[in-house]
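step=encode ok
step=design start
structure_in=
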């Protein structure tokens, strides 16, 4: 069975959030706030889509 694109990208937003927060904390290079907002939003959307998918599988 082929994995859907959402299944392949499930962990990517969380990894990006951690990396960008680490870069901001260590002040390695400037990261714009809009980029952080986009990545956090992407992570939240992915989280809720995965939760809805699992809920449909159980029902």
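sequence_out=
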């Amino acid at each position: 069975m082929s994995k859907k694109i959402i299944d392949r990208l499930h962990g990517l937003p969380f990894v990006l959030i951690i990396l960008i927060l680490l870069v901001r904390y260590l002040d390695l290079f400037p990261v714009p706030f809009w980029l952080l907002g986009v990545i956090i939003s992407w992570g939240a959307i992915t989280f809720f889509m995965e939760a809805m998918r699992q809920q449909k599988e159980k029902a």
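step=design ok
step=annotate ok -> The chain is about 75% helix and 0% strand.
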